[in-house]
Amino acid sequence: MNPHDDTTTATRAATATTDTAATTNTAATATPTTTATTTATTGPTGPAETVVRLEGITKRFGATTALDGASLSVRRGEVVVLLGLSGSGKSTLLRHVDGLERPTDGRVTVLGREVTALTGRALRELRSEVGFIFQQFELVPSLTVLENVLTGSLATVRGPRLGLWSYGRAAKTEALARLERVGLLERAYQRADTLSGGQQQRVAIARALMQRPQVLLADEPVASLDPESSDQVMALIREIAADEGLTVICSLHQVDLALSWADRIVGLRHGRVVLDTPTEGLSKAQVMEIYGRVATSTDQFEAIELELATSGTPGTTGTSGLAGGAANVTDGAVR
Predict the structure, then answer these.
(1) Torsion on CA atoms 289, 256, 92, 207, rounded to nearest 10
(2) What is the strand order of the sheet 105-110 is part of?
(3) How far apart are CA 43 and CA 180, in angstroms?
(4) pLDDT value for 223
């Protein structure tokens, strides 16, 4: 983790972890394919409240188009994974959900409020209902684990914000309970920079939970972790989401993990939604096939062939299907 000035990092972590997530119901679907079926977002069984909706979102940074007419809807309690290569628009999409970015065109609705129309206190209130988990943890290294978790409740603190004494007894008790929930209660008074990567990410999860969010955003939360720690962290997020009824939108680059962990997979390429389908009954080879139809280079062709070979699907139609395009998703290359 890159070192940060303590004050700057604390402010960034507190602001970011009080950022917003969103509401929506109909998602843009992938390009047609004959070997795998892509399905519009309809959710599990029966109607449910839409909490995140992005409609025709375009975002330009100068001459660069990060999102190009992307649409997505997520219903309460859903766990959705965003898959895509570096530069595909995953992080930018997440930042629109909590208002950290404003679209060039399009509309974002979160928890019944139009994010693009919110400013000041109204925007801060919305962000307080959305937790954010980052790839690089964004902890303050020199603070204790407990103090880092407590920064998740800074929005409720009045007066000076200096050390543990800034927080009331109730906040400290809740923070300790959150640490117990993620299995780190015994580390409460240990410096954050003495923890392993997996432990630091669990502290970040506890910090996000201090907001008591309705929506949880996670941007590549296990990209910096080893496989064992990745499995533990993702299992913890899924378990907490189920226990607390959270809606989760998470970007990942591991196809296997996404298939086993998410309710839906949404694929992005060059800022466009090219895949939106439930994971139930979906195989790794099918995901790779669908992405294979939107690839652009020989390297991507080779990557998908290798991915399919290692997925244990001999004789798959994936290799022949690649004649129409190359793969955008591999376990090691997708961001």
Answers:
(1) 170
(2) 64-75, 50-61, 105-110, 113-114
(3) 32
(4) 86
CB atoms within 10 A of CB 301: 18
| The dihedral sign for the CA sequence 127, 128, 134, 137 | positive
pLDDT bin (cut points 50, 70, 90) of residue 41 is very low
Residue with the larger pLDDT of the pair 71 and 269: 71
The answer to whether the CB of 275 falls within 8 A of the CB of 12 is no
Give yes or no for a contact between 299 and 328, defined as CB atoms under 8 angstroms apart.
no
Give residue 236's pLDDT. Answer: 93
Instruction: Residue 182: name the closest of 164, 207, 214 by CA.
Output: 207
- Write down the mean pLDDT value for the chain: 77
List where CATH 3.40.50.300 sits in the chain. Answer: 6-282
Among the four given CATH numbers 3.40.50.300, 3.10.450.50, 3.40.30.10, 3.40.640.10, the one describing domain 6-282: 3.40.50.300
Q: Residue 110: which of 43, 54, 48 has the closest Cα?
A: 54
Distance from C-alpha of 207 to C-alpha of 125, rounded to nearest angstrom: 17
pLDDT at 24 over 50: no
DSSP summary character for residue 162: -
Banded model confidence at residue 303, pLDDT cuts 50, 70, 90: low
Q: Pairing state of beta strands 247-251 and 79-83? A: parallel
Mean pLDDT of 317-335: 34
Q: What is the pLDDT of residue 302?
A: 57
- For 238, counting Cβ atoms within 10 Å of its Cβ (0-12 exposed, 13-18 middle, 19+ buried), the class is middle
Most confident of 13-22, 101-110, 218-227: 101-110
Q: Which two tokens stand for residue 208?
A: 């996000």
How far, rounded to the nearest angstrom, does the alpha carbon of residue 115 sit from its chain's CA centroid?
Answer: 18
**Of 260, 236, 233, 256, nearest in space to 246 by CA:** 236
Q: 3-state class of 44 per DSSP? A: coil
